[in-house]
Structure formats: structure tokens, C-alpha cells
Amino acid sequence: MTIQLFDLACANQRIFFSPYCWRIRMSLKHKGIPFESLPWHFSEKDRIEASGSTRVPVILDQGRAIAESWDIADYLDKAYPEAPPLMAGTAARARAKFIESWCNATVFPTMRAIAVPSVFEIIADKDKAYFRESREKMLGSKLEELSKDPAAETAAMNKALKPAADALTEADFLAGTSPDYADYVLFGTIMWPYVVCRENPLDMSSPIGEWFERMLNLHDGFARGAARAHG
């Protein structure tokens, strides 16, 4: 049976840009579970109300709705134990939880000025009023005033990523010789600006840039073949 993934899309419904949905997209490919992305928009909260959530990702599997990326990853490991694990044991779960918390506290804040205005440009017209109101309230700034110095903002993002870059001088992946959910958490985070921005802000010459290339090539180049807002 194919899992259905409610996947945040912009006006072009081939372009999926949610960092949290990308975590699950890569997790499903990792486990080899067939899935279908259902384009979803901010204004379509009624379509996922059965999950008890107002945001994606949400998956539908055998009549059951599961929301929140961490809970979905946990569910996939428990429901499909015969498939390659996303978090193989306590240490892997702790590593993934640390990367998730670090991304939320340290990495995402440096990306907002870079990515949020770009998201507004590409989302469906029916989503624009909600997106502007909710993001301006959250960030305390007009969308047009978020980015003041793109070069400095890009440098700040790459500086925030340095702990992961340092770790990746020791191994090909955060999990070691092959990726697990910790890698997909960070990868999904970086896919947000990679998909929506005109220029990729990641320093591709750094260890994390080299890791990102490896991640793009995983699962027969699944992520590398994904549509981006600007080519």
C-alpha cells in the first residue's frame, strides 16, 4: 500500500519546500516505502484536520493519520521494522533529537531572512494573506524588511552550520558511514533555502557542502531531481 504524504507546495504544485516534509520524504525513500506526495497549501487546513494538526507533514497510512515529523519517523520505524531503520537504537534517537533541537534553536533563525521572503514570492495567491500575517507577527517585521544584508545573512547561516561541518570532517554522514534520521533532519532544514532561493546560500566547498551533495545523490538522486523555484 502506498503512503500518502500531505506535502507543502507553492503555486507550482511540483515544488515542495517544507523542511519538515523533506525529512519525511527522505525517510520514506530510506525505508523503501512507496509514497505519493499530495500538494497541500497553508489555506487547506481542513484537508488534514483528521490528524489533529494544522500543519504538515501529515501521512495517511492504512486509514491512520500521523502528524509531526518526529512522530512520523518514529511511526515508520515501528510500523515497518523490516525496512532499514531511521533510528537504530537509543544512541541514534538521541543524536537525531539533538540535531532537531539544534536546527530549531540555532540554524533556522539564521535562515529566516534568507528564505521567508522567497517563500512569499512563490506560494499560491490564496496563501499570501495568511503567510504575511502569521510570519510578520512571529518575526516582528514586514516581510520586505527581513533581509537587510544578504551577504552577511548567508555568512551567518554557514557559520551556524559549522558544528555539523566539523563533524563531517570525521565521517561521510552524521550517522557515520551511512545516513539515518539525524542526516535527514539537517538535510531537510537546508533544503528549505535550497529550494526557494534564487541562489543556493550553502557553502558548497565546505565539508557540509560536500555532505549535501552526497545527500542529493541518495536514493537514485531523488532530491537532486526535485523541482526548485528558480531552476
**Secondary structure: helix percent:** 40-55%
SSE ordering = EHEEEHHHHHHH
Mean pLDDT: 97
The quaternary state of the protein chains shown equals single chain
Verbal overview:
This protein is an alpha+beta fold and 231 residues long. 52% of the residues lie in helices and 9% in strands. Helix 1 (19-31) packs parallel to helix 2 (69-79) and helix 3 (90-122) runs parallel beside helix 7. The longest helix has 33 residues, at 90-122.
Strand and helix map with partners:
Layout: E1 3-8, H1 19-31, E2 35-40, E3 58-61, E4 64-67, H2 69-79, H3 90-122, H4 125-139, H5 150-160, H6 162-167, H7 181-196, H8 207-221
Parallel strand pairs: 1-2
Antiparallel strand pairs: 1-3, 3-4
Helix pairs in contact: 1-2, 1-7, 3-5, 3-7
